[in-house]
Specification:
- The protein is α+β, with helices and mostly antiparallel strands.
- It folds into two domains: 82 residues, 434 Repressor (Amino-terminal Domain); 212 residues, Endonuclease, Chain A (2-Layer Sandwich).
- The strands form two sheets. The chain has a seven-stranded mixed β-sheet, with helices on both faces. A two-stranded antiparallel sheet has the order 1-2.
- A hairpin with a 3-residue loop joins β8 and β9.
- The longest helix is centred in the N-terminal third of the chain and has 16 residues.
């Protein structure tokens, strides 16, 4: 018996996994429906995460697709709770959460708040490497795999089309991740990103004191056909919030907007920080980068 519900991040993840399993088994929806003696609409709705089915039906379907035991268990666990709302997804340290990767690929707008470090989409490769390497749970052997996985997300072609608003605390800009040279390169890169047409960067100054984002970083995503969601990243897990739990973040975003410098002020602030860093001849900043810092105020 099918049970229909509103789409959730977990149900969409289930549908994506099921479509991959059916495709890998060299079936299409209609073909596997005929083999099982099911109505094609039942398979279609399952493949798009619109409905769930009994554990017996799902075990039969996954058995025909010959999925691995690990993937079978993952999909059955998703199906068992896929309309239950918020979701804590565990993953390896240094690796992006699969659900976040899948939803970033279809998002229309992104609002990100970070109070300690740069968000992934604004990081240079050297900065990213230094952050990953700082984790005690990531070994030297795992570092390159983590780099490749995060770089794949950062360089996804869909990101060019996403309207992104990034709220950064001054502390995130001043933290010398990777040492002085990597830090200065990151600030230079931030200035370059700030002039992209769909990127908005706003800085919350330390002088503001307490602010709406003190509880931690988060990212808000909106979609063309799905309800908004918020994800909160930790070292080896990511919490995906939906429904009212996600909508509650609208007031936090409004408060951060009010606490932050506007875009022009933020660009000038970042440029001035870049000048501070490049003033030290031992930072290794190239002359051309220094010239860019000096021109930054003209971009505002």
């Amino acid at each position: 018996m099918l049970s229909s519900h509103a789409s959730t991040a977990r149900s969409r993840e289930f549908g994506l996994g099921l479509r991959a399993a059916i495709s890998h088994a060299q079936f299409n929806g209609r073909g596997i429906a005929e083999l099982l003696g099911w109505d094609p609409s039942k398979i279609s709705n399952l493949m798009h995460g619109k409905v769930t089915a009994s554990p017996t039906d799902l075990a039969l379907l996954l058995g025909i697709c010959r999925v691995t035991p690990a993937e079978r268990d993952r999909l059955l666990a998703l199906a068992d709770n896929m309309f239950s709302g918020s979701w804590l997804q565990r993953h390896e340290a240094g690796m992006p959460a699969p659900a976040v990767v899948d939803h970033l690929a279809i998002a229309e707008m992104l609002v990100s708040w970070h109070n300690h470090v740069m968000p992934l989409f604004l990081q240079t490769p050297a900065y990213m490497r230094a952050l990953i390497a700082a984790s005690p749970r990531v070994t030297a052997a795992e570092l390159e795999n983590c780099m490749q996985a995060q770089a794949k997300v950062r360089e996804h072609p869909r990101w060019i089309d996403i309207a992104g608003s990034y709220y950064l605390h001054e502390s995130a800009l001043r933290l010398p991740v990777g040492g002085s040279e990597v830090h200065a390169e990151q600030i230079h890169h931030l200035l370059q990103m700030a002039v992209r047409p769909k990127v908005q960067i706003r800085v919350v100054p330390a002088a503001h004191g307490a602010h709406a984002g003190v509880c931690g970083s988060f990212t808000w995503l909106t979609f063309e056909t799905y309800a908004p969601l918020v994800y909160v990243e930790r070292e080896n897990s990511t919490l995906v919030l939906e429904g009212e739990a996600a909508l509650d973040y609208r007031s936090t975003i409004r408060a951060l907007h009010e606490s932050s410098m506007d875009e022009r002020e933020s660009r000038v602030f970042v440029a001035q920080l870049g000048e501070e860093l490049s003033a030290d001849d031992h930072t290794g900043i190239r002359t051309e980068q220094r010239r860019r810092y000096e021109r930054a105020q003209d971009w505002a």
